[in-house]
Structure formats: structure tokens, C-alpha cells
Specification:
Length: 238
Amino acid sequence: MSEMKYKRIVLKLSGEALMGKADYGIDEDHLVKIATEIAEAHRTGTQIGIVLGAGNIFRGLKGASKGMDRASADYMGMLATVMNALAMQHALENVGCPTRVMSALPMQAVAEPYIRQRAIHHLDQNFVVIFSAGTGLPFFTTDTAATLRAAEIGADIVMKATKVDGVYDKDPVEHADAVMYNELSFSEVLAKDLRVMDLTAVSLCRENSIPILVYNMLRPGNILKAVRGEMVGTLIKE
């Protein structure tokens, strides 16, 4: 077992992360690659909770922008996260990583109900726990769900996987001269409106002294490096 920096983490993955090069849904080959890297990090002894978005299937805000009732759209998004969670569970268990899916919405046929003490018990028993259905309430993002679960289970850090190397002063896709930050404070993130996560999520981490690491999940080995505490991405802390 390799030396680990964090005892317990929450890994936030966007739904788009599961698409790979596809335009919609889940790219099975890409899913297996992600699961393999998570399993490798899990073997270090770090306890891992995962929160998945649903942008590859349905995004509540997008549905609401087209005239759908926001609460209904958000509930549809929550259901989509359960679909992603079941896909991730299958991929993780296929690479030898024991996994439990917990849902904030009652869904006993496919997932356990989210109960904080039971989640902690599963983590202590060496299961990866996938937290699905967001917070169980509309008007909250999966970023907020990730930080809320991190606070509830006493996670050491929230690790947000992205498609860029970290947090930049401007969009690196559109600006070649964009500069990446190695480290930021919560105050700087809020003052500069850097859009790392939504404001509720950032505020929740700040209030509970939970650092956020933003890193590039497309670079092989980055999850393992992050768990070991190597210099990867941008670290946000107070």
C-alpha cells in the first residue's frame, strides 16, 4: 500500500467526463479508463466517495432554460445521475473495486438510501461510495452535493475533475496567454469570480475548511498523483 496524503476524499466528476469523444451518453472505453484510475487510487488505502453530474444525459438548468419547470428539470437531472452512478459501479467492480451506490431519492431497487452513518460505515469497510441524485432537492447543483457530502462524511478534500489542468485567470481554450494558478484562497476565488464551482459549493467548503483541488482528469495518473499529494492542478484553501 502506497503512502497516502488524504484519508478520505470526495471525487467530483461531471457527466461529460463519461462521454469521452461521444456526443451523448457514456463511452464505455472511457468509463473503464476512469474506473481503472479510481481503483488504483483506492488501493492506496484512501477512502473514496464519488459524486457524478448528469450533463451527458440531462442538465436541469438547460431544461429549465427551454421553458420546463425548474424543479421538474432538476429532478430529471437527479435521476440521470443515478444512471451514471450505476454505470460507474459496474465499471469499478469489473476492475476489482467494491462499490456501493447511495441515492438521495428513495430508489431501493437500484440503490441504497443515503444515510450518513451508513455511508461512513461503507467507507470504513473499504467500499467506494457513489453518492447519486444530488442533494435530493431541486435548485442545487451536483457541485453543491459533492461539497455537502464531503462535509457530512468528514472528507479531507474535494477533488474536482475537469478537462483543463487547473484554475486559470481566464478561459485557456479561448486565450493562449491564460495563466494557471497553483494555489488560491477561497476569498480570491469569490472575489475574482473564477467559477471553480457554484458559489454555494465554494462557500460550503470555506465554512467547513475543506480544500478543493481542481485538476485535469484527462491526464493518465492524475487521480493517483492527487491522492498522494503530488503537485497537480490548483489547490484552493483558506
